[in-house]
Design brief:
The chain is an alpha+beta fold. It has one domain. Helices cover about 40% and strands about 20% of the residues. It contains three helices and two strands. The two termini are about 20 Å apart.
Length: about 80
């Protein structure tokens, strides 16, 4: 994720790693969300599979996004 973030592709506000998934609170900067998620999942999945010594895909094919429109909802998500 750090590699994709270093390109300026997104602003990362918060994240949490759960046992079977990941939550990200971010804003895409210089590319659309679909491409951004593809890049994050592709690069991180490759590294995770390599370190585990396994084969195949790591992430599910899709992702679920939500638009946060109110500041109070942003802070609720951060909490």
């Amino acid at each position: 994720m750090a590699r994709v973030r270093s390109t300026g592709a997104f602003f990362l506000y918060a994240y949490v790693v759960m046992p079977h998934h990941l939550h990200l609170l971010l804003t895409p900067h210089n590319q659309n969300l679909t491409r951004l998620m593809r890049d994050i999942k592709s690069q991180s999945g490759f590294q995770i599979v390599k370190k585990r010594g396994t084969r195949g895909s790591f992430w599910q094919e899709r992702y679920f996004d939500h638009i946060i429109r109110r500041v109070r909802h942003f802070w609720q998500k951060v909490e």
